[in-house]
């Protein structure tokens, strides 16, 4: 049956949505938008495929007390009035953690929900919102198939050496391993590489997904071989509010000497660290870049330095580097951050063309750079829409 796919991406402080024609391209949404700033200053925005404003009913008023559940309860009926009477034939969700259970998009059923609940403590900022969105849709359209698309699935091609920690093996056996995240974004970039890199697409490529959450993925054959995020989405690069790599001894010190509770430590690591914690100003890179506060500058410099050291640490997993790709909010839009990261990588043969970088061209490396360096916009929604289509085709 033809109609529309709806994709939902419930993040820590936002809910993104997109509507696709079920028989149309999955790279172009008919309608898409988001409610950002949930918990602080929520704001709704949406645009139609024509690029024009979205007409019909206005979105209900939002206040700082409007939580994720309330936003989704407002969003679904609002969407209904913007579908021109077309049936919703499938709803796809970005779900952050699929653990060891889910290696591919999965039709949601009761046993799947139980697994998602079980994994919620591993992604406390995201998974509960993903689950709430699935439940809200089940209430809205009980008979519509819902497809869960996992950020962890893309990384299940990693070798055991990349997965296990140097901890007693009983813990690895219990699933305390490195999972990796941002898999929908990496999946999209992997599918775009042949267009941009030709023969090199299947070579040794590192993709830097730099946004409020940031990570990197090393690929060969367009499959994940290693990534900077681990058991949770706290590991690896410094992020907007998350700390990234941290000596675990710091946690012991905070508990034993500072008397911090697990909840306080969770808030510190997930919400008060990263660019926000180091700058003391904001987690917003665009603001930090133009700030003359020395703490803001130090936060920006640390972000770039840590990005370069994390990138270098990925290289042994793929035995070299043929191309580097930047994506996501910072990776796609910040010439300064790309330049600062690449300045730490000149020893590798990375050399940017400053004008191309400034213009956010697709290829930003200089003609004589040993490592082609690209900017490719990511599109997680397209991957979720493709999973909806695959489900309907195969069912
Ligand atoms: P994302 O999580 O992928 O939406 O990325 C959000 C991050 O991208 C925020 O830190 C923004 O400040 C940053 N960002 C977006 N546009 C720009 C820009 N033009 N320059 C610098 N940072 C940007």
What keyword list fits this structure?
single chain; 395 residues; alpha/beta; Nucleotidyltransferase, domain 5; seven-stranded mixed beta sheet; five-stranded mixed beta sheet; 17% strand; globular; binds adenosine monophosphate
What this model shows, in words?
Keywords: ATP-binding, Cytoplasm, Kinase, Magnesium, Metal-binding, Nucleotide-binding, Transferase. Pathway: Metabolic intermediate biosynthesis; acetyl-CoA biosynthesis; acetyl-CoA from acetate: step 1/2. Its EC number is 2.7.2.1. Belongs to the acetokinase family. ATP binds at residues 16, 209-213, 329-333. Helix 1 packs parallel to helix 3 (127-140). This protein is α/β, with parallel strands linked by helices and 395 residues long. The chain is globular, with a radius of gyration of 21 Å. It has 15 helices and 12 strands. The model has no long low-confidence stretch (mean pLDDT 94). It has 2 domains: 4-150, 2-Layer Sandwich (Nucleotidyltransferase, domain 5), CATH 3.30.420.40; 198-375, 2-Layer Sandwich (Nucleotidyltransferase, domain 5). The strands form 2 sheets. Strands 4-3-2-1-5-7-6 form a 7-stranded mixed beta sheet, with helices on both faces. A 5-stranded mixed beta sheet has the order 10-9-8-11-12, with helices on both faces. The protein binds adenosine monophosphate. Residues 211-212, 240, 284-286, 289, 328-330, 333-334 line the site of adenosine monophosphate.
